[in-house]
Amino acid sequence: MATDAGVALSSSQLETSSPAATVDTKGCTIDASEFQQKYDDLPAWDIGRPQPEFVNIADHLHGSILDVGCGTGENALFFAERGHTVTGVDFLAGPIETAQRKNSERGCDVTFKQHDALKLSQLNEKFDNVLDSGLLHSFSNDDLQQYVAGLAAVTHPGSKLFVLCFSELEPGSKGPRRLSETAIRELFADNWKFESMTRTRFIVREDTQANYSDDGPHAWFFVAERV
Ligand SMILES: C[S@@+](CC[C@H](N)C(=O)[O-])C[C@H]1O[C@@H](n2cnc3c(N)ncnc32)[C@H](O)[C@@H]1O
């Protein structure tokens, strides 16, 4: 099935095999300079509040939290305000500084630090929960494998993973690569048990809405438990 192949293919295969490429349009990791360019402007995802999917599951989340690719920190701060111990990491200094400023303004106690999500094991810490809002779909196939290995290193059996990522239902090629449900399930087949996989939308800034589907880019929101 075309949508299943994405994660297993190399970048070069993705460029040449058209059925898979219609789903996984980007075989390259989005690097720091590309993200920095987005932050130099106003990024589509920086909506000044948590993504609703994370708000919806808040009552089901217990214990410490790592927010990977936390950006300017809205999801991390939301959970800190609910009493969780939260660490937020992002590889860019700018968004981390903004997150730290919001942290003091709101009287929160999140640990925000600059750290590469592809080196999660170097955090030398284990978390009860990991949040990923918009990072997973930024990686090439090889980096996806490395990222998922890092997620295992910062979790323990019973830890929960909450991910919001672009789905193959989003037409066109604006934004990051699209991931299919099957590709996601393959990626997390070892070490994780899926609890839910929901079709949903990203909320994006109103001024960027025209780049995506009405009601926001199609997305997957999934919850998995570390086994
Ligand atoms: C789409 S944004 C989402 C930001 C935030 N989670 C939110 O929902 O507003 C993805 C974030 O991941 C960060 N990022 C991308 N690659 C990363 C990496 N290798 N290590 C750490 N952060 C990364 C980017 O700088 C950016 O802030």
Describe the protein.
There is one protein chain. With 227 residues, the chain is an alpha/beta fold. It has a domain at 31-154 and 200-227: Vaccinia Virus protein VP39 (Rossmann fold, 3-Layer(aba) Sandwich), CATH 3.40.50.150. Helices cover 29% and strands 22% of the residues. It has eight helices and seven strands; from the N terminus they run ααααβαβαββαβαββ. It has helices spanning 11-16, 18-21, 32-40, 52-56, 74-81, 93-105, 141-153, 181-187; strands at 65-68, 86-90, 111-114, 127-133, 155-166, 192-201, 218-226. The chain has a seven-stranded mixed beta sheet. Strand 1, helix 5 and strand 2 (86-90) form a beta-alpha-beta unit. It is globular, with a radius of gyration of 16 Å. Residues 1-23 have low confidence and may be disordered. The site of S-adenosylmethionine has 21 residues, from helix 5 and strand 2.
Overview features:
single chain, 227 residues, alpha/beta, Rossmann fold, seven-stranded mixed sheet, 8 helices, 7 strands, binds S-adenosylmethionine, methyltransferase activity, SAM-dependent_MTases_sf, transferase
